[in-house]
């Protein structure tokens, strides 16, 4: 077991990033023109980094599996982006954002990285406004803020329920400017199949053109993986259908360590599963918890009656409802962090209080918000004695202006009007905090291979706070990577173009083609989805919201068996040299079948509960997570050695110099 | 429910396509339209036939990947939603559903129901941005107040997901609604005003180059747009264009 060097700069926390920037090697503009960078993924982390690197003068090639960079799944982020601007004057600061993020992550992230994130957060908002991102504003023309889970200030900037879309379009517009200048070449409908190492350094990739099936070689002086998270290992998640781990996993197999794979965020407010046909789950933004109150019936008979369709939620009086988050966590109430809210929902449903047909749902109720806003609006507009109906209508208007698109989305899917009856929600897999291990420079353990955004592990510890993913993606892409990668590339000013006719490219391409042929030539018993769904069931049941040693051991064996069966018996119609959606899915599921096993192995080895990782064996008497800082205050970075079960553990001890480790309490 | 599907099948851009009939059974009203196609594809794969290729990704109505002309309407019969948000409860047992790709000269078919919409990207590359460096060394975000109405209108224009339904709905296959939404988003903000003239000229020029038709004010685009992008944007773009051209 080696000790990983995170390359954290010396000095006081608040000076680290400035000192670092003052002392790195720079590449002069003329030399940047001779340096190529490959960017995998064009979401917030990839798109923003591609634009910035190109603007600095590097030649950038971007790759995405979608037909346009603007469709990356960052687009689906709803609620907002955090920044320590303190525009509300409610006591926010870089330190508070840093503190909230470390605490929210249950003390399993790196201080220096998180502080840097907080430090550049304000700049992100300036940058986006300058790019024409239409954030929500107040009547005075200033930017509006709202509050998110796990914090006591309002620091979230938003654009209705489409913040991710607006930020991604901003990053994409910055990319477009560089595409127009000829500094970015965008390879869309392309998938990275492998990373190519020359003399131990990442020097290019093998990609597949998803329209023609052509296998292509692309070289560069550095490769950046901004390919997102791996939530789709669960089959059902809020990720896009195509979201996958292939780029990160291929790099892992070539030597990049994979950190904390078991840290998964199960988001509390998603639309419940309705049946076996379900292909994905839909998130209802956490911002809804600003105004929605979460409850289940107090009496089990009422829950049963509701499940049987004999009672409606609106039939129950206030006294008959259990607002369990407000009851258990009076200080944070409905705005506890995601991991806490999810587990509390599961606890109630497991105890028999769940509300929809499946018993796996709780209510998110806007009735009191509608009433409160309605009264407020009636008062400010001079209605002295508004009728109940007037109050409802005025309140509905306010709620609609805040969450209109989310309510519409809910109604379309569930066929119920959430203004009239409470929404039903249940936790679903949403985000993966784990990912490629990176140092302070965002470099993986492969020299020249970097990772940004959700694809890396660095900033969110064991649980991510709401509205922090967008912040991290853009911080990494606009402000961090463009500096740190320059330090590495300054050694490459005399290297010249990397040739693609080398033995290394030959070998990598052959391995990619062999793998595709092997998939195409399997016996053809079952579809790719058949295996993916099976894997998802194992993951959800045994590596989901709560885990135990027995089931994790079972999962490891079951996944290994499933993987073997997959390679023998998967069925892919058509040919490899054309558009072939089944082949694309098969390549991704093959990697999920390896990652899933490592995931379970990591969860098994971490004998503590922290953040999104809840081990049933390690909990307090009142059911809260029980951390073990003495033995597990480290990042688990796994080295690939041939198969997931043989992965070797490397530890990066986490050092807390500026924050005192405490039991996380939101009570 | 049991349904008859008439689906456009086309091997690639070079070959000729044709409509093929499929019978599908056991469809539940709670399924989304794309989940219904998943069921069909699972059947086809199990029979060793080629599944129907279609674009889709987020399946929550925001990425703009999914398209499909369903019974002659882009994104199907419901209003203000994309195909992935369309649910089978909209249909009834015994229905025949005709499924085709979005049709436009500027959107050539890639395979089956997948079309190439990169013309939209090229319009945005022409000038769909504000020329500001991404260094972060800009002015404080609150230093220029923006009237809430303008910020909201800009946001409404910016909610365009670039799916191409406006083009598919238009008898001229015009991209005016799309282009005008992109022009408007920037034109309504003080940050975007600086380059407004160059922007509108460049984007309209690229739009014309791509082979989209002209606007004849039928308004079909607005009706079929899953995001409710308003025709006002076209009027605004025309104004901006005129203003820029006479300078």
Q: What is the approximate shape of chain A? A: globular
Describe the oligomeric state of these chains in a short phrase.
heterodimer
| Helical residue percent band of chain B | 25-40%
Give the count of helical stretches of chain A.
18
Structural class of chain A: alpha+beta
Rg of chain A, Å, rounded: 25 Å
Topology order of chain B in helix (H) and strand (E) letters:
EEHEEEEEHHHHHHHH
Averaged pLDDT of chain B, please? 97
Account of the 3D structure:
- The complex is a heterodimer of chains A (667) and B (247).
- Chain A has 667 residues and is an alpha+beta fold.
- Chain A folds into three domains: 13-263 and 433-492, FAD/NAD(P)-binding domain (3-Layer(bba) Sandwich), CATH 3.50.50.60; 267-429, Succinate dehydrogenase/fumarate reductase flavoprotein, catalytic domain (Flavocytochrome C3, Chain A, domain 1); 501-629, Fumarate reductase/succinate dehydrogenase flavoprotein-like, C-terminal domain (Methane Monooxygenase Hydroxylase, Chain G, domain 1).
- Chain A contains 18 helices and 19 strands.
- Chain A has helices spanning 16-23, 29-32, 44-56, 94-104, 111-130, 163-180, 246-253, 300-307, 324-328, 338-353, 367-380, 388-414, 469-489, 503-520, 528-542, 549-569, 581-605, 629-632, and strands at 36-40, 59-63, 81-82, 156-157, 184-187, 190-198, 201-209, 215-219, 222-225, 258-259, 264-270, 293-297, 321-322, 362-365, 423-432, 435-436, 449-451, 634-639, 648-653.
- In chain A, the strands form five sheets. Chain A has a five-stranded parallel beta sheet with strand order 5-2-1-9-17, with helices on both faces. A five-stranded antiparallel beta sheet of chain A has the order 11-15-14-12-13.
- In chain A, strand 7 (201-209) and strand 8 form a beta hairpin.
- In chain A, helix 4 packs across helix 5 (111-130) and helix 16 (549-569) packs antiparallel against helix 17 (581-605).
- The model of chain A has no long low-confidence stretch (mean pLDDT 96).
- Chain B has 247 residues and is of the alpha+beta class.
- Chain B folds into two domains: 3-110, Ubiquitin-like (UB roll); 118-133 and 146-246, Alpha-helical ferredoxin (Fumarate Reductase Iron-sulfur Protein, Chain B, domain 2, Orthogonal Bundle).
- Helix content of chain B is 36%, strand content 11%.
- Chain B is built from nine helices and seven strands.
- Chain B has a five-stranded mixed beta sheet. Chain B has a two-stranded antiparallel ribbon with strand order 6-7.
- In chain B, a hairpin with a 2-residue loop joins strand 6 and strand 7.
- In chain B, helix 2 runs antiparallel to helix 7 (196-209) and helix 5 (176-187) runs antiparallel to helix 7 (196-209).
- Chain B is elongated, with a radius of gyration of 20 Å.
- The model of chain B has no long low-confidence stretch (mean pLDDT 97).
- At the A-B interface, helix 3, helix 5, helix 6 and helix 12 of A face helix 1, helix 2 and helix 3 of B.
